[in-house]
Fold this protein.
Amino acid sequence: MIRHIPNFITSLNLTAGFISIVLTLRGDIVNASWLILVAMIFDFLDGLSARLLKAYSDIGKELDSLADVVSFGVAPAIILYQLLNSSLATKGTWFSDTMGSGAILILLLPAVMPVCAALRLAKFNIDDSQTTSFKGLPTPANALAVVSLVIAMHFSSSALLTSFTNSASALIIFTIIISLLMVTRIPMLSLKMHDLKVRGNEERYILITSVLLAIAFFGAAGAVLTIPLYIAVSLISTLFRKPLVVKH
């Protein structure tokens, strides 16, 4: 039974992603975003439990990827669909006919996110060089980019965030950029820490400090800077340190 514990936790990840989709379709994107964060916790715990219990399996690896596609690809994409749908219906948008073919194509644009998430995970499963660093934006980070936008918008009174989420053009650019980042070869920092020592974890502590400072200065609105800061720290890290490649 012990060897099935990680797979059970992975199933909870998938369940949280499914409930998030249901909530989004019912118009509750805030609680849907919280469910994606819950899925991220389960995604962390399944890997941790597999390491502690030494319960690795090929099925567990594939199940984890399938769950991530739903929770971190499909679920955030549907949130973006709802945001785009709302922005197209907002008076003054540059789409005058929300039922026109142009608007329909725009509403289908978020489909690129789960496609890129699936491609990213498929490549990850066959690439044993992504142990201490990643190539392309990890799927949980993709989801966090969407979730942080929704939560920051809900808990802050930032006019800039409101304008962003009400702008179809801004949402389109946002969707395309974070989706394509998943399938790039850009080196990204792995957040897995084998110990709490500063040496060897410098970039991770810099990232944590930067995010905390952003939230301290900007309040809830600072949460949207989490992924931009993660990307910036990852890129700066590659300039000053050769990426470590450790094979399984």
In short: Residues 73 and 115 are 8 Å apart (CA to CA). The two ends are 25 Å apart (CA to CA). Confidence is low (pLDDT under 50) at residues 91-98, 243-248.
